[in-house]
């Protein structure tokens, strides 16, 4: 455990860029970093969330599956900082960099930089692609997901308003089969478009400790909660 009190840490996005698209595994970048795969049906808000996580509009909203490449890679560097008074960062030897700032007399802040790669699957769960496209796509994707050991976290995005869709049950089964067969990766559900919920439904999800987010009406607190949930799960802290 690196951080003793995550309430007093802050995550800042330092820089992000689009790496590349891939149709097949051999086109993928070297698996050198912690990777986070974003999955969910089309229109659930994947690209919008990826842009929020990158703090940059790099993922295109409303892609056309079949015409788009299958897998898109985005690189980002997050900075986790903690106030020394409140929390302790230690044992960070395997992380790329540990920076020590002591700019202000009253607060000595430690921080660490963490490189992450987000992976978008633009065509996932899109019903209107032709059978042939879907067959090829399914094979490539299943291959990729099973073989890519650098994926440490699967984020399953679910529309807050429609939590019982058959496609989500299918995605969940698929991802659970992977995460249960591998010790080193996790599954995190993220409920999107929470601005569209009425108060009662919103509180119901929150009472179940669900992670919810709106990319339209986001608060700094909601963004930090999302960043922390993703970072901690992906690094297995
Ligand atoms: N109200 C609302 N609309 C959203 C939110 N996130 C995305 N959208 C809209 O939902 C549509 C699909 O979003 P997109 O990110 O392209 O979904 P994707 O197909 O899963 O990548 C777009 O019109 C977005 O503007 C949100 O948090 N709240
Ligand atoms: Mg998209």
From TrEMBL:
- Read off the Pfam families from this record: MMR_HSR1
Cofactor(s) in the UniProt record: Mg(2+)
Q: Which keywords fit this entry according to its UniProt record?
A: Cell cycle, Cell division, GTP-binding, Magnesium, Metal-binding, Nucleotide-binding, Septation
List the CDD domains hit by this protein, alphabetically: YihA_EngB
Instruction: Please indicate which superkingdom the organism of origin belongs to.
Output: Bacteria
Q: What residue stretches are annotated with the EngB-type G domain?
A: 32-237
Which family is it part of?
Belongs to the TRAFAC class TrmE-Era-EngA-EngB-Septin-like GTPase superfamily. EngB GTPase family.
What function is annotated for this protein?
Answer: Necessary for normal cell division and for the maintenance of normal septation.
This chain belongs to the protein called: Probable GTP-binding protein EngB
Q: Which organism is it from?
A: Helicobacter trogontum
Gene name of the encoded protein? engB
């Amino acid at each position: 455990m690196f951080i003793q009190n995550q309430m007093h840490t802050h995550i800042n996005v330092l820089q992000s860029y689009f790496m590349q698209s891939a149709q097949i595994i051999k086109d993928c970048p070297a698996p050198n970093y912690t990777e986070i795969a974003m999955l969910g049906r089309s229109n659930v808000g994947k690209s919008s969330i990826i842009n929020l996580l990158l703090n940059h509009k790099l993922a295109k909203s409303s892609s056309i599956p079949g015409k788009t490449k299958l897998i898109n890679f985005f690189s980002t560097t997050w900075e986790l900082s903690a106030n020394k008074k409140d929390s302790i960062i230690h044992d960070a030897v395997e992380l790329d960099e540990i920076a020590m700032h002591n700019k202000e007399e009253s607060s000595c802040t430690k921080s660490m930089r963490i490189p992450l790669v987000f992976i978008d699957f633009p065509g996932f769960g899109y019903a209107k692609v032709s059978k042939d496209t879907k067959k090829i796509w399914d094979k490539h994707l299943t291959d990729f997901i099973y073989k890519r050991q650098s994926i440490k976290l699967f984020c399953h995005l679910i529309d807050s308003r429609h939590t019982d869709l058959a496609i989500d049950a299918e995605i969940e089964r698929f991802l659970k089969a992977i995460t249960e067969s591998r010790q080193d990766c996790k599954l995190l559900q993220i409920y999107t478009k929470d601005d569209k919920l009425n108060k009662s439904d919103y509180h119901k999800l929150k009472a179940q400790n669900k992670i919810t987010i709106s990319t339209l009406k986001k608060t700094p607190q909601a963004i930090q909660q999302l960043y922390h949930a993703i970072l901690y799960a992906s690094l297995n802290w």
